[in-house]
């Protein structure tokens, strides 16, 4: 799907999502630097592997059973910091910003394991923050989009933590890599312009029984290193294996940093997935 008249579309989507995820029903609390590993880790893990949680509490309505978005920041798996995207605040959502370790201090495989530990931790704690594990979404931009698709498509990452990847309500990836991440290729001495698909590629793990998957990218002519085409290939292969709900959307005129206009579409897709799940 390619958005050509995006200003009008964004306006219409924003009107819908404000109704679906109302702003003024609740009060909100914010907790920072919640560790998701047990004590006894090394200093680097203790300082990086932390969560920020922004969540609704009682206001005009009782805050319970709210949808959850676990958000992974970008940065090439080599930098960045945990964040609560401002657009997702005050929408009646539990929003969790995840911090994780970076290459080259750890391998990409270790970063994915951090992501899996963080997701399973908040999944098991979600009631404490008025969230509902039956309305549990993963999302992230760039490196974050890569991490959430890896967790959704390769169940072996969440299984050791007692969580089934198919229990995820949905996954929304913002311009994530679908082939092997370029940082993983760098670990093997492969140039970032040399495409590779191996076990560290979401494409390697396409399967028909995965949770709903929404792939958002910037304009194919403005994106980073063929990012749209990677996601188009992932969409195609998911369709071929029989996955019933993979969507691909390209935002014409926007480059790699396309979180807005992506956020209004993300909320619309969350509402769609929740509605279809309950029908």
TrEMBL record:
It comes from Sphingobacterium wenxiniae. This is Acetyl esterase/lipase. It holds the Pfam family BD-FAE. Residues 1-22 form the signal peptide. The lineage of its organism: Bacteria, Pseudomonadati, Bacteroidota, Sphingobacteriia, Sphingobacteriales. InterPro entries: AB_hydrolase_fold (IPR029058), BD-FAE-like_dom (IPR049492), GDXG_lipolytic_enzyme (IPR050300). Keywords: Hydrolase, Signal. Residues 51-221 form the BD-FAE-like domain. PANTHER family: AB HYDROLASE SUPERFAMILY PROTEIN C4A8.06C, CARBOXYLESTERASE. One of its GO terms (molecular function) is hydrolase activity.
